[in-house]
Amino acid sequence: MSSGEGDYYYGTLLGESIRPGTAIEGIPLTVTKVRRAAAGDATAGQPELWTFIEFRVAADRVTELAEVLSAVLSKDGGWYCDIGSRDEVLVVFHGRVFRYPRGDQLERARAEEYGRSVGVPGAQLDWPE
Consecutive 10-residue runs of the chain (129 residues): their mean pLDDT? Predict the structure, then answer.
């Protein structure tokens, strides 16, 4: 879902993952692509159609973005947002952020375990390394 280079982090946010009545604002994002696809898992309480919002954010704003995302992502349905640079991965859930060096399998496993515990179907724990 994301890859990074230079002074930017890249990620994909699902429009359906944002809680109604909340907003992401005050952090400049560059949207690079928006698409819709049938990717949801009804058994996990997810809608069938998802809106994928691919973006980039300046490296000096990625921590702030992760904090805002952890506040606005839905608590229900197993939602997360992954953001990455060439060297680092952030996986953001409601109320929780995992940040680790790309390729760190132990930290990735911790993020995956947490994702499963909050209802993310195993097949959707697919952020890139």
Answer: 66 96 96 95 87 97 98 92 97 98 97 96 92
